[in-house]
Write a structure and sequence with these properties.
CATH class: Alpha Beta
Strand content: 15-25%
Helix content: 25-40%
Radius of gyration: 17 Å
Domain ASCH: 45-168
Number of strands: 5
Protein name: ASCH domain-containing protein
CATH topology: Sulfate adenylyltransferase
Order of helices and strands: HHEHEHEEHHE
Strand order of the largest sheet: 1-3-4-5-2
Structural class: alpha+beta
Shape: globular
Pfam families: ASCH
Number of domains: 1
Organism: Nesterenkonia aethiopica
Length: 173
């Protein structure tokens, strides 16, 4: 009898530790008061939809390969949230919910899924950094995200492409 390999189980994302995120933000604000006061509010978020992906993408950010991310614009509507603005700060947590870096949004653009370009795919820093890889992996990801929200992914959905810079890391605190 031939057995088929089982899909690898994925660890669910742990909820972000908001108290630890506040502590990381306070370290940043104390070290760089002018930068922090320009935007006294911040978001707390995670990359991906499971712990391993969150950790993998966060490692790319910390290594300097990932300087961009993308979200379906519809996700903000479903979740009742406003998208980030230029200059917005986000504390990104790992898959266990621990805050690791603070980024500041430096650029935003909207495009249809099929109109995202190779430059953006490269800036996301994932896989071989090609547009083909970006489209394959993001389509799979957004199909999971949409299914979890009781919706269906379609290639004409608008993608919010975000550029960012790391302004603080847990290694600095």
């Amino acid at each position: 009898m031939v057995t088929m390999p089982q899909p690898r189980s994925r660890r669910p994302l742990a909820a972000p530790d908001h108290e630890a995120a506040r502590t990381l933000w306070e370290q940043y604000a104390q070290a760089r008061p002018a930068a922090a006061s320009a935007s006294s509010d911040y978001l707390v978020d995670q990359f991906g939809d499971h712990a391993e992906l969150a950790d993998e993408l966060l490692d790319l950010v910390r290594a300097g390969y990932k300087t961009a991310t993308a979200s379906l614009l519809s996700e903000y509507v479903w979740e009742g949230e406003a998208p980030p603005g230029i200059g917005a700060h986000t504390v990104f947590c790992d898959g266990d919910g621990a805050p690791r870096v603070i980024v500041r949004t430096t650029g935003l653009a909207l495009a249809g899924f099929t109109d995202v370009d190779a430059d953006h795919a490269w800036a996301e820093g994932e896989g071989d950094r090609s547009l083909a890889h970006w489209r394959t992996e993001h389509r799979l990801f957004w199909e999971r995200v949409c299914a979890a929200a009781g919706r269906s992914f379609t290639p004409d959905m608008e993608v919010l492409m975000e550029r960012f810079e790391v302004v603080w890391s847990d290694a600095e605190g």
